[in-house]
Write a structure and sequence with these properties.
By secondary structure, this protein is mainly alpha-helical. The protein has five helices and no strands.
């Protein structure tokens, strides 16, 4: 059976993962909004294939080189699949550890003592910070309300996971140093 510390921190690690995904979505939405608003100018890069590329494609069909390239492609695909699997398994752990470290460091820089309550307040502030740019964008353009709703659901999920983590930590008597 898993110790209570691991169970509580599992919820924190998942919450940090959802929160980071929400931050990435907000950054992408803000970037798209800025591009559409004309604040950032985008440049188009023409993707023309050269005659040498066309000749290489025509030459490689049906030869030994094509078989070697196909085998090489399968090897690369297997490597990428294993890498993605490894990252999917280890990423929540490392996000939880690094997110907790950064949050505790931020609390310490504000000259507060790191307690379970200050950790929870910091996590609530981190969740709230992601919603501010979205609210400003929706005030400008109401057609983006669906984006606001979807990101708000993710932020709400991370908030619920953080609250569940702190509830479990309080019920099991974990110290602030043990909470991610």
């Amino acid at each position: 059976m898993l110790p209570s510390r691991r169970i509580a921190n599992m919820f924190g690690a998942i919450a940090y993962s959802v929160l980071l995904t929400s931050y990435a979505m907000v950054a992408g939405i803000v970037l798209i909004w800025l591009l559409n608003g004309g604040v950032i100018s985008s440049t188009q890069v023409a993707q023309n294939s050269s005659p040498a590329d066309d000749a290489l494609i025509a030459e490689s069909s049906g030869s030994i080189a094509a078989i070697i390239v196909e085998i090489f492609a399968y090897i690369i695909t297997a490597f990428v699949a294993l890498t993605v699997l490894f990252v999917a398994i280890t990423l929540p752990y490392w996000l939880g550890k690094s997110g907790s470290y950064l949050l505790k460091r931020g609390i310490w820089l504000c000259q507060w003592s790191v307690t379970a309550l200050t950790l929870l307040i910091g996590k609530i502030i981190a969740v709230g910070l992601a919603g501010v740019p979205l609210m400003l964008i929706v005030m400008q353009d109401i057609s983006t309300i669906t984006v606001l709703i979807s990101v708000s659901i993710m932020l709400g999920a991370s908030l619920v996971l953080f609250l569940l983590q702190h509830y479990l930590a309080k019920m099991t008597g974990l110290e602030a140093e043990e909470i991610w």
